[in-house]
Amino acid sequence: MRLLLLEDDRSVSAYVAKGLSEAGHVCDVLAEGTDGLFQATRESYDVLVVDRMLPGLDGLSVVRALRAAGVRAPVLFLTALGGIDERVEGLEAGGDDYLTKPFAFAELLARINALARRPPVQDVQTVLRVADLELDMMRRQAQRGGQTIDLLPKEFTLLEVLMRNAGRVVTRTMLLERVWDFHFDPKTSVVETHISRLRAKIDKPFDVALLQTVKNAGYMLHAPR
Amino acid sequence: MRPADLLRRTAFRLALGMMMFVLAALVLASTIGYSLLRQQLVIRQDARVTEIFLALQATSQSGDQTDLVEAMTTRISASPDRSTVYLLRGPDGKVLAGSIPDIWFKPGWSNVDAAALKVATDYPYRIYAGEISGYALVVGLTDADLDDLAEISRSAFGWSALSVLIAAIAAGAVLAARVQARINEVEQILHRVALGDLSARLTVSGRGNDLDQIAIAINHALARLRGLVEAMRQVSADIAHDLRTPLNRLRIRIEAAAEAEARGQPAAADLAAALAESDAISQTFAALLRIAQIEAGAARARFSRLDLSAVMQAVAEVYAEVAEDAGMVLTCQTEAPLFIEGDRELLTQAFANLIENALRHCQPATTISCEVSAFGDHIRASVTDTGPGIPEAERENVLRRLYRLEKSRTTEGSGLGLALVQAVAEVHDADLRLTGAEPGLCVTLSFPKVV
Q: Nearest Cβ partner of B325 from A154, A182, A193?
């Protein structure tokens, strides 16, 4: 994957670029807003990672200008400002996701991966499949190996998020945001509890476990290799 | 106070303006009164002249004009000061009797100067000239009363104007001084505030007048300002106090890792601990920032009408299974739907914090009940547990930032959970109350109902 990172803090950008290339991505780094804007319009990138506060042109303006110029590449904002208003502003300016500093690299990588393979809006999949697990979006029904699984509404959403990101790590924070709309860090094991309930329904009665815990990162649903 | 300053005082200018107005009204009233009185006097004078004329005419009815001449002579001698004047001419134009020179008067009413009649007064005369069977009869009456009236009116006006003037200046000065004293006080207090003394307050006289209202509003603004500044000061003190300790621990961990590395021992355990420490620090920091942002009140701009019951139900649903796994029971009872003006995200976090507090501080077999119900003009949302509760003396304290019941701070938790709930309550104009549930704790938020 080809990524563009706009970040003026050299130690952060060096660390992130190193991590991303170790994960197999090509990463261009620029530290100035205007340069970043030109680079992003000239070249084609899979994901743009933009810091909110940049010298020259600030991150919000860069993304607004890119969207106005018709650049559709998904944008992940990085910021030290963690307020609700900042998040809303970022999404309104054309950002697709938002990550507050300080962040764990695993979190950033998971979010970049999720953004890059977001399917185009027009071809909505009506049935999601991972190995013998099927999720019928129209009938709101889950099946594994032809056997119907009863899911509560939130369990269904949780499974949907995991299946749409099948083969990729979904972090605890991503689940909290996407399934429960929680934009804060709970002090109790909310995610763990619901994951274990889901596991009991989709994995336990079957031979092969599909839902994996990725240490220090999150969860991943994938077909057995 | 210099005279120019006095003129700039609002109160004095108002008094002065009022005085001008009263003077104008006085002039108008005097003029109207004078002309009405004068009109009345003229009518009465004319009536007297007519009366005399008719009486003399009656004397001549007998046909013998000697009676008329005699009557006139009597009347003339009865008015030696010539305040009433007479003149009678025969058909041949000869003067038969009279107290004035022989002048021709036009028939009917006329006003004549005293000088023309050779009378030594300053007052004009009211004259009626008529004919009685060929004889020309003139009867006149001086206007002395009218002139007196003008004189009386003038002096009455002068005196009242003078007293109004004195009263207005005196009242204006007194009022201006009183208002000025309070304005000076406002000025002084605001000056003290500008110098940094946020505890300065204006005195409220308790008369409930407009200046009192201004004083109350200023005091309210000052109290709010002080609260905000206090909150800021509190945050910086909290950061200094509560982040330094974990920062110190972080430093020790990193030092330990560096030493281990230097001795060729594995440093991974120390580094992992350092990472956890730094995560905890950034969480505390984020929570403090979030509380400060909520307290700044920016969220109000995003407020919308929402169903509080639905918010509570969604949160309770998330935690029901968490409670079950911890061996507790979580129930949720809501009256549907109950609307308030608010921010869904903040309310969700506040309710989640309350439920998490109960989950973390209670033993298994505890029941946590969430409720939303209408209560008079309020909507109450509460989270009640049957756990150990909080001693009454500590209930105020736990709302403070970074305050924790266990002083040792061994268990997890930043001590910011309830402070955030408090901030969310404040931004929603809701009342946060901690009460004992015998046994246990009941946390209630009372929101004003949306009309």
A: A193
Chain A's closest residue to B319, CA to CA, is A190
Distances from the Cα of B197 to the Cα of B221, B229, B367, angstroms = 14, 11, 49
State the DSSP code for B55.
H
Phi then psi for residue A215, to 5 deg, are -60, 135
Percentage of chain A modeled with pLDDT above 90: 56
pLDDT, mean of residues B387-402: 76
B282 in contact with A, Cβ within 8 Å: yes
Contacts B293 to A, Cβ<8 Å = 83-85
Confidence bin at B354 (pLDDT 50/70/90): very high
Cβ contacts (< 8 Å) between A99 and chain B: which residues?
none
Cα of B180 to nearest chain A Cα, Å? 46
CB pairs under 8 A, 24+ apart, for B313-317? B314/A180, B314/B348, B315/B348, B315/B351, B315/B352, B315/B355, B315/B370, B316/B351, B316/B355, B316/B370, B317/A154
Task: Look at A82 and B302 and tell me if their CB atoms are within 8 Å.
Answer: no
* Closest-CA distance of chain A to residue B2, Å: 55
> If you average pLDDT over residues B278-282, what whole number do you get?
86
| B37 confidence band (pLDDT: 50, 70, 90) | confident
CB atoms within 10 A of CB A12: 17
Angstrom CA distances, B9 to B97, B156, B173, B174, B445, stand at 73, 32, 10, 12, 50
Asked if the C-beta of B278 comes within 8 angstroms of chain A's C-beta atoms, the answer is yes
pLDDT in tens, B122-148: 778 888 888 887 788 888 888 776 777
Please tell me which of B194-198, B320-324, B360-364, B394-398 the model is most confident about, judged by mean pLDDT.
Answer: B320-324
d(CA B98, CA B100): 6
